[in-house]
Amino acid sequence: MITKLKNDFIVRSTVGALIIVIIASILFFIERFYENKNSEKIIAQSEFHVNNAIERLAGSFHNLYRKDLLLMNQNQMTIEDLDLVDSLLKNISKNELSYFVGVEGGFYLNSSKKFLGFSFPTSPPPQPAYGPPPREYEIILKQIQQTSSQKNNLIKLYEFEPTVFILATKQIEIDGQKVATAYSLMRIEQILPVSFYKKFFPIVLFLSLTGISLAIYISWLLRRRVEQIKNGLNAIIENPNLRLQKQKGILGIISDSINSLLDARDKEQTERIRLEKELQVKEKMASLGNLIAGVTHQIKTPLAIIKSKIQLWQKKIENDKTIKLNGIISKESMQDIVIEIDKLAGLVNKLLLFLKNPVQEFSESSINEIINKVILLLKTEAESKNINIHFIENKNISARIDPSSIEQVIINLLVNAIQASDNNSEIIINTYQISADQIAIEIKDFGVGIDSQIVDKIFDPFFTTKKEGYGLGLSIAYEIVKLHKGSISVFTNEPKGTTFRIILPIS
């Protein structure tokens, strides 16, 4: 699944990138086509204007030249003469170029080798006083030199950032003599269509390179994080207790979902094992109950008969002094039999208590009073081992319970604690409220503790590690607490000892 997700992402990313590139290319060629068409039209119109402009400049120069032939044909003109000629030519260029918006121009006089008569009448203020402009000076001079070897007008397009202009030059020849060159210049960068791609090319290039780099990095990062998930899943196969590392983004959501799924699976397995154990216990209890019911019925009556016969013999021996007893049959041996019969009867009674519902009647009862009563009942047994029972009372601890059955639970647990404790030790009983609807009772001893290997079996019927007893005390306590909708659990203390915790609902 992870590999498929990674491949799908790469394929979709590649297809998306190709679609974007194709669309951008189509738009680029369409835009370039219309841009070129418009540019060609503007350039053709501008060439027409500058060509007409130099024709008019050349025609007006002819008339002025013949009128001032002596002045303009001098090889060595004074400054006053140059100023006069410049003024005359400027009037001509100003007059002629006023018909052509955006066109500037003037003359190059061969005899003096100087630019004269520059004018730009349609320029927005302030108008330039001198010309040609410094940046275009060398270009104009070079094209004038090229024009001297041609008979036709020379028109060229020049482009250098940030300007684009068209320059037209015409050689003026009078009576077979090349006397001057007329030039006109029109800047068209403002009226040419601006290419979107040309205008934003640096930005587009930067964004493209950044996008490609980012896509490569994201692809590498995605591949790395997908590999982490894949390796994590392989590790989980080996050790189901492991979990995937926390991640960010959509893969983080995926890894969290996988972890949640694994947690849910573990919880379900734990719950299933618990239910299976509980079912096994119930099945065992059901089978055991049927067996005990039959056995106790068969045993109880014969025991009562045997006990009554022995007691009858005891009374007869006491009343009839003529009866002689040998060493085997004696009052003491008969009393031993009665004691053993009472033990068997006690076992039968416990089995019957275990089989029937021990909970009789619920009522609002004080937990502290029940515990104090049990402590008083077992005081002699605790004092025989010099054990101090310390009860930490939490006031107002009460619940709706069956007092007699909960008393039986406390007795069973406290008897176990006394039996497990060493001489001169302590038992701590604590009551407290967990929440608004639950209370807890804890009985803590400092005895030998319970082996971790058998802790899961201590509530099973007839399971015991003691030489005496039948292993029913904790089983009966467990059933009583369960009938109260509560729970009972056991914990091992450090460095030694055991704590039993009972949780009961208040109502």
Secondary structure topology:
Layout: H1 2-67, H2 69-72, H3 79-97, E1 103-109, E2 114-119, H4 134-147, E3 154-160, E4 163-174, E5 177-187, H5 196-199, H6 201-238, H7 249-319, H8 331-355, E6 363-366, H9 367-377, H10 379-383, E7 388-392, E8 398-401, H11 403-420, E9 426-435, E10 438-445, H12 473-483, E11 487-492, E12 498-505
Parallel strand pairs: 7-9
Antiparallel strand pairs: 1-2, 1-5, 3-4, 4-5, 6-8, 9-10, 10-12, 11-12
Helix pairs in contact: 1-3, 1-6, 7-8, 9-11, 11-12
What can you see in these coordinates?
The chain is an alpha+beta fold. Among the domains are: 36-194, 2-Layer Sandwich (Beta-Lactamase); 200-238; 360-505, Histidine kinase-like ATPase, C-terminal domain (Heat Shock Protein 90), CATH 3.30.565.10. It contains twelve helices and twelve strands. The strands form three sheets. A five-stranded antiparallel sheet has the order 2-1-5-4-3, sandwiched between helices. Strands 7-9-10-12-11 form a five-stranded mixed sheet. A two-stranded antiparallel sheet has the order 6-8. Strand 4 and strand 5 form a beta hairpin. The protein is rod-shaped, with a radius of gyration of 58 Å. It starts with a helix and ends with a strand. The model has no long low-confidence stretch (mean pLDDT 79).
